[in-house]
């Protein structure tokens, strides 16, 4: 029996994917590791995302909770998952401000369910703010140091 | 020095717009102060005792004349005609209005400057050797590597919400002129047996509430893995650094709690994984950066003699001029510690003068020391007298480098909302006392550092003599510490015993100075005598 | 007495609750008494003040004197730059601070 955990489809304000949102609800990392058929998992800041690495192919949604936006562990969790080849939905939930959007996209997040809805105009601005990036991350942006040297 | 290309400029300009937007949203009530605070901190904007305070980044402490002029203009236009140079090679303004902060950042962007990540739980300004490019003992100029790391760490999407602030220093010499072992990451560019350059990584140093000396984590990281190794160090910290207690959240606590060996193991594991991701910059980037730090066209056939007929000049040249690798040159230290002055403060007028002097005497370059003085790195010996006269006329000629008058002090309770006690008046009185008695000269090298609270921005743990201001039942009180060093002989100062009031701490500093004068052997600095004889003689003199 | 202090949101200037508004002059500060937290919450959310808090002060001949030295420094300015502080003209303010 899984309890309803995490965000529902209607709480997702932004989504940068074409596929359908997974049905069903998220389970904790511990529960996920015990349920062979679970395909949606919620990571808390203290969880080690690497526990999911052997199971990436069956995961359709990883939801990363930011209880306070100052706790940046979720950025590393997200990027590590992408580095190891996770291609499913990576959703940032909780205390997420529009000011974190650009960095979160760079770390591999492709959907967002913030506690406080983003202002639409602010979202546009945030996503078009940065003309370049200095360093590689989980996105496809080419770092400045590579642009410089063709 | 480094110059922005279109990419660097575009990033700084974008940041200005982002910040303007955040200020607008704050003023319109769309962001609460709790939401806005971490965002403004990442642009160096604090709310302090009297107003907002802005901390401007001076990457690896290097400034051009034009930049120093711009800093002076900002002091006049937006502040109260002065600025404060800090213990991390940055500069601070104390009387800033939030509604003007965006304009200030725009003015800074015009001269390739910014306030990016000078506060907040992110990677801060990367500091380096203030004699880089001039010191004869450096293996290479460390600043190209600092510049590479500046780019890597700026707007880093994964490491902008760390458990706590993160400070990195880069040097390339056996002598440590950047307090490298007292940083979250200290990097020393070294050579291996094959003569190849690499980076020795020290991780987990710091001052503050729990001072620690960084242990060596890896003795040789090849330079083409510098960024990848740094990334591994940060990721382990982001993952495991404590988030439950602000006072236990620095990486030094993590390294201490799990042990250097375990921390290293985790870093090596992450490093192996990250090497497969190919995140290192191309070698061509370092090659592109290096020429910006190439030695200037030094003249040849220069005299190594200065006209020493003026005894005051003689004092200054002996004390404040450091040997240079190029014959006929020295690095000249401009003291921002006049007798009785506010350590590290400079008026706009003085800043304009220093900018002109940098242009005229030092290939248009100056440096900010973490000891709150300014360096003109490349000055012809034959022109020193002329330079000194101009400095002296402007109150910038104090011949006290590394002497007791060369006090390092944080702003303290006169300015800072974190402080428990005032540090500047203590510095002023000590400076005056030792100048009046002439003892300052007799004492020789004595590094005195004063912090107004346990956050240790005055680096008191690393003082030969350190003073820590505390709040004792609502009254200012001062603890005395002895025996710290920020150099390659790094050590943490020890407290002498119970604290003193303001008059008491000044007398206490005199007392320990007298003990030293009495007990010293030939050639011993204060620190050497303390290390030889220990704390007891000092304690007896202080408390019996 | 309990007085309220904070910073002006836009300018950062130190301000004191005078019963109706936020004044630059500590002499205008009133005893907020039991209403303190309500006033703080309302004024903060209306953005008429930033980072405001209540402090103890004693009423003296010169007006309210904050109990803690930090707030006395805020009231008068940095003790090492009397030319810049709020009461720049008044040299004899310093005993009051310390």
Question: What is this structure, in a nutshell?
Answer:
Chain A has helices spanning 29-34, 73-83, 101-106, 120-128, 144-147; strands spanning 14-15, 27-28, 40-43, 61-66, 89-94, 111-114. Chain A has 150 residues and is α/β, with parallel strands linked by helices.
Structure description:
The complex is a heterotrimer of chains A (150), B (544) and C (98). Chain A contains five helices and six strands. Chain A is α/β, with parallel strands linked by helices and 150 residues long. Chain A has a six-stranded mixed sheet. Chain A is globular. The termini of chain A are far apart. The mean pLDDT of chain A is 95. Chain B is of the alpha+beta class and 544 residues long. Helix content of chain B is 37%, strand content 17%. Chain B is built from 17 helices and 20 strands. In chain B, the strands form four sheets. A five-stranded antiparallel sheet of chain B has the order 1-2-5-4-13. In chain B, strands 3-14-15-12-11 form a five-stranded antiparallel sheet. In chain B, α3 (65-78) runs antiparallel to α11. Chain B is globular, with a radius of gyration of 23 Å. Chain C has a five-stranded antiparallel sheet with strand order 3-2-1-4-5. Chain C is an alpha+beta fold and 98 residues long. Chain C contains three helices and five strands. Chain C has one domain. In chain C, β2 (14-17) and β3 form a beta hairpin. Chain C has helices at residues 36-45, 69-76, 94-97; strands at 2-7, 14-17, 22-23, 50-60, 63-66. The chains are: A alpha/beta (150), B alpha+beta (544), C alpha+beta (98). The interface between A and B is large, with 39 and 42 residues.
